[in-house]
From TrEMBL:
Domain of life: Eukaryota
SMART domains xref list: Dabb
Assembly and binders: Homodimer.
Domain Stress-response A/B barrel: 5-104
Protein name: Stress-response A/B barrel domain-containing protein
Length: 173
């Protein structure tokens, strides 16, 4: 297994964004993997279905290490999107098989599909045992439905003291 750092970005596109502007925004984010070192893969698109925070788009990025995320977040790429669309982001460490296909998310299984991004926030009063139990049940669900899942990563958010979320998971169907 290889340690990696996952980065989830949730965007609220401007309400009056045109199809061309939306395409430019997504292309801009997608091509960041070719402009900066340390980005292993990018997956992005429009969020399907309503959500309580009115997010319109989600971006998933995989980095080799924490330092690569810091470089990305200080780049003009990141600043431009932040200024134009606002965002919520979380980073978490996880592990994947140390092989080119799962690491870089290449191959037939990754050409098409849906990403499910789960951001988890526990009450401050939640006991450690309750948190561990909830996370263990999430892993059991992932294992139970593994025949439908291409890849699943989960972990504790790196800056969870500064974030609304303490844990996150990305599941590719």
């Amino acid at each position: 297994k290889r340690k990696i750092v996952e980065h989830i970005i949730l965007l609220r596109a401007k309400p009056n964004i045109s199809d061309a502007e939306e395409k430019d925004m997504l292309d801009y984010l997608y091509t960041s993997q070719y402009q900066m070192r340390g980005i292993l893969t990018v997956s992005l698109g429009r969020i399907e279905g309503p959500n309580s925070e009115s997010f319109t788009h989600a971006v998933f990025m995989r980095f080799q290490q924490k330092e690569d995320i810091a470089k990305f977040q200080s780049s003009s790429y990141y600043s431009k999107v932040l200024d134009e669309h606002g965002l919520v982001s979380v980073d978490f460490e996880s592990e994947v098989e140390d092989d080119i296909i799962p690491l870089f998310r290449r191959g037939e299984d990754f050409n098409y599909g849906v990403e499910f991004m789960l951001l988890i926030s526990f009450l401050e009063t939640a006991s450690r045992e309750s948190v561990e139990d909830a996370l263990a049940h999430l892993q059991k669900l992932i294992i139970h439905y593994s025949s439908f899942i291409v890849q699943a990563t989960s972990g504790c958010c790196l800056d969870h003291m500064d974030s609304l979320y303490s844990h996150a998971s990305v599941i590719r169907f």
